[in-house]
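Why does this matter for the project? Reviewers at the last site visit asked to see concrete outputs rather than summary tables. In response, this paragraph embeds two records directly. Each consists of the residue sequence and, immediately after it, the corresponding structure tokens. Nothing has been edited or filtered.
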Amino acid sequence: MVCGGFVCTKNSLCALNILYVLVSLLLVGVAAWGKWFGLVSSIRVVAVVIGVGIFLFLVAFVGLCGALRHHQYVIILFVVFVVQLSVSCACLALNKDQQNHLLEVGWNKSESTQRDVEKTLNCCGFSYVSYNASCAASCFNHMPPLSCNTCAAIIETYAGEVLRFVGGIGLFFSFTEMLGVWLAHRYRNIKDPRSNPGAFL
């Protein structure tokens, strides 16, 4: 049997959806692991990552059921593709000023995230070090605390790399989703040879 047939297309769709199920479980597992071991104390960050993982799991599960039962789920997959491609392109298109603005907005929204960043990166404050405020960094507790860097200086060095990495991974998975849309559309239009074998004679 050629690989363009019904069984090969069905198996390809199943394999692609199983890959997405594994990626979604990995997202949920990494978020839970980070929270469990105290790497991330912000419940918002963990909740967003777990939410994305659960959403991806549901889409992959619906896709897997659709592939096994010969149902159409092209529209759902196409909507996910458009959203993911848009977010990936946005990550890759942000310039330095836009990155800095988004970082500062994110910094000001959550004090627990500020403490996490200060403790992990050993820095104090976003754009300036305030010696009258509290800081979770170990450099702030030493005397004199003049050796502490601002968190913006450290974060900005990694922000561009992280956004390019996330954008690249998003583009990779969005094109695999486009492959899934094509396979699902093709699969939808292929007759199941087991349903009416006489139709192919």
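We now turn to the second protein, recorded in exactly the same manner.
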Amino acid sequence: MILSCVRAKKKSLQEELEREQKWLDEQLELEKTVQERFDHQPDFRVITKNSELQKLKSRLEKVINRKDELLSALGKFLDVHYPPPSETDTQSKTVRLAAERDKGSTNFITLHEILECLISKAMKSPHDPYLELDDTFWPPFIEALLRYGVVLRHPDDPHRIRLEEFDQ
């Protein structure tokens, strides 16, 4: 009677062992499949917050460096092709009248400074990006910017300009 009880217990344990072995084989096969998919998809890897932050910092640094390079190149280009107005350049009738009105004040700002003012105005107040023109702006610079589509006049006030939106 004890022998038959032990044999029955042994048989049930062997069946349970077989079930557990099948389950283990299935789990190992599943793990192998998941590992293969994980290895084939490198973007699926777990990324830590620090590594993501480092990537963003490096991208930001690259963008800042690129922006500085572009601004430097723009400054050099403007200095060569659009130098500040000389005394002989400011002797036109329109400029003379403006100079007489201001009692001889002919200190015009450079095209580079005009563009800097326009960019800073557009960035600081996007709801009102218009820059008020005064006598420090040399009219040929403003006309060149208007002619080449870099700036637009205000629809109601011709003494205000803003940068053209190039991204839309």
